[in-house]
Amino acid sequence: MAHPIKPTLKTEIIPILLILISIVASLYFYANFPDQVPTHWNYKGEVDSYSGKAFGAFFFPAINLGVYLLLFFIPYIDPKKDRYKDFSKAYHVFKGMFIIFMTLIYLYASLAGLGYPISINIVVPAAVGLLFLVIGNYMSKIKTNWFMGIRTPWTLSNEEVWNKTHRLGGKIFIVLGLIMLLGTFFRGDTYWKIFPFVIIIGVFVPIVYSYFLYRKVEKK
């Protein structure tokens, strides 16, 4: 059975190379990690959780591979698989960006585990900010499907509601991405205490918008 969006060497080479790099790197990290390695940091960049060297070395590469395979096969099982060809470029960009993001976080966290002076509290927000910017720029390209995008009862029920909600969602993600990037320049506690509420608002605004837009469209 043909893949709904026809993956090619061009679309798969970067994710596959990054997964291979993370697997090879995991062997190096396992051989050089101490018995306990940091695996979680708070917003101040302070380590607040440790794990064994095997978990620290191999867990993220395994998750990375699993995410790639999941994203590769999702178009096969989606009842709306025929729609993927309409946003295949955006789908491949999302897939590639998720793998890039997870690989970078794994490598930086592992270097921190080896004792290198890595500022995780700067690296992670910056990486998340860039991920949000890319997602925001391509979100409006996503067409109706069951696995990706802002899937509410109202967006899935009406194509116009889906499209307009994703245009709004894309703008919100871009704003959130910029806020995340700017946040790397702040060291105070206030910013990081407020930011989760900003994220929550950013998530719920498109949901509420899709509901009221659906009611408006249906009245027509």
How would you sum up the global shape?
flat
CA-to-CA gap between the ends?
A: 41 Å
Q: Percentage of helical residues?
A: 55-70%
Q: Provide the low-confidence segments as ranges.
A: none
Provide the domain count: 2
Taken as a percent bin, the fraction of beta residues is 5-15%
Average residue-wise pLDDT: 91
**Main beta sheet, described?**
2 strands, antiparallel
Arrangement of strands in the largest sheet: 1-2
SSE ordering? HEEHHHHH
Compute the number of helices.
6
Q: Keyphrases for this structure?
A:
single chain, 220 residues, mainly alpha, two-stranded antiparallel ribbon, 6 helices, flat
Describe the model.
68% of the residues lie in helices and 5% in strands. The chain is built from six helices and two strands; from the N terminus they run H-E-E-H-H-H-H-H. A two-stranded antiparallel sheet has the order 1-2. Helix 1 packs antiparallel against helix 2, helix 2 packs antiparallel against helix 3 and helix 5 (159-183) runs antiparallel to helix 6 (189-219). It starts with 8 loop residues before the first helix and ends with a helix. The mean pLDDT is 91.
